[in-house]
Here is the input.
Amino acid sequence: MKYLDEFRDSTLLKEYLAEIKCTVTRPWSIMEVCGGQTHSLVKHGILRLIPDHINMIHGPGCPVCVTPLHLIDKAVHLALDKNVILCSFGDMLRVPGSEKSLLEAKAEGADIRILYSPLEAVRLAENYPDREIVFFAVGFETTAPANAMSVLQAAKLRLTNFSILTSHVLGSTSHGSRTRRS
Here is the structure.
């Protein structure tokens, strides 16, 4: 696999660290936005290797990375119910739960639909009145209005088979936590 050997090359790592030390001539604050980035920095000990005058700030994380495990597990549980059509944005399917991902549940026969708008889930509720339609609403606060609109639309249509499982994340950097090295 290309880049795997380069990733593990300690000589190359030392060269990169030396270049970073030469480049950073004053204090820097760098935010990693994605929870996956934060996880990699911690797992591989990179935070301990970077110069002290680089302050890493843990950002809000993308909504996929920061969705609580119990909600992913709940979505998987709902999806495995034969009476449920679980809908979500495609980026949620590969996120692991404590036992399996939505993609694995889909492979086991769960009816999981990738949608581009929560209003598509409302249409599904109209078309499948005998099934419970659950939209797994994950996103920053910018996605909340569309999700709220879907609930209002379902109420307007008097649909009783539409619901959302929601995990909205504030995207403000003021909620990030700073890295402290010991």
Summary: Residues 4-61 form one domain. The two ends are 35 Å apart (CA to CA). The longest strand covers residues 132-140. The CA atoms of residues 45 and 143 lie 34 Å apart.
